[in-house]
Amino acid sequence: MNQIQLPETYMALSDFRKHDIYLTEMNQAQIIADFFPGTFTELTQRLSDITGAFYGGILKQAGKLYGAEAIDQLSSTFMYDLGSRMTLRNLETKSNLQPGIPAVAKILIGAVFTSSPEYNFEFKELNDHKGELLIKGIDRYHKITQSLQIAGLLKWPVIKPFIQGVCDTMGLDVLLEIKVLKLDPDSSCSYHVMISEK
Q: How far apart are the first and last CA of the chain?
């Protein structure tokens, strides 16, 4: 009988699974091989898809319960709060992170690394007075809201309040401008972000 090869992802993340208990008649190795994401890319994409589905599903339900205008209000408030919370966590855990435009950039990079794998960034300028970058890739928030037919009820990009929440939580008096350079029906996007001192 062939030994079932467990995915490397399962082995690397086994600490999360060490308390799972299967029934004796269940083929644990086969279940893991069949259902555990085989690569970190697949795992990351699945997590991102679930995050997007949660976001979109909540917004659609809010629209049904409270009207179409609630959709953008809820999205904006949620994104702002998310940016604020991420900033507070980073300021607490990274003692060398001093409030300022470079710190905003680092938090944005961290958000892309941990939460928005479909985005890529391209910095054009970064100093104490100004940060300019492009955010490109697939906008998962647009993708899910397109499929739920509510994208037209949102102000794009929906990440603007996130960035504003980062800046406000640091107490920065800055001008934040985000322009949509591209947002296609397939949700491929390019956003120009400019943060500058007032």
A: 70
Under the banding of pLDDT at 50, 70 and 90, the label for residue 1 is very low
For 5, the token pair is 């090869």
Query: What string of DSSP letters covers 62-82?
Result: HHHHH-THHHHHHHHHHHHHH
- Taking a C-beta distance cutoff of 8 angstroms, is the pair 178, 191 a contact? yes
pTM of the model: 0.89
Q: What is the pLDDT of residues 10-32, one digit of tens each?
A: 999 999 999 999 999 999 999 99
Q: Are 10 and 17 in contact (CB under 8 A)?
A: yes
CA–CA separation, 120 and 133 (whole Å): 10
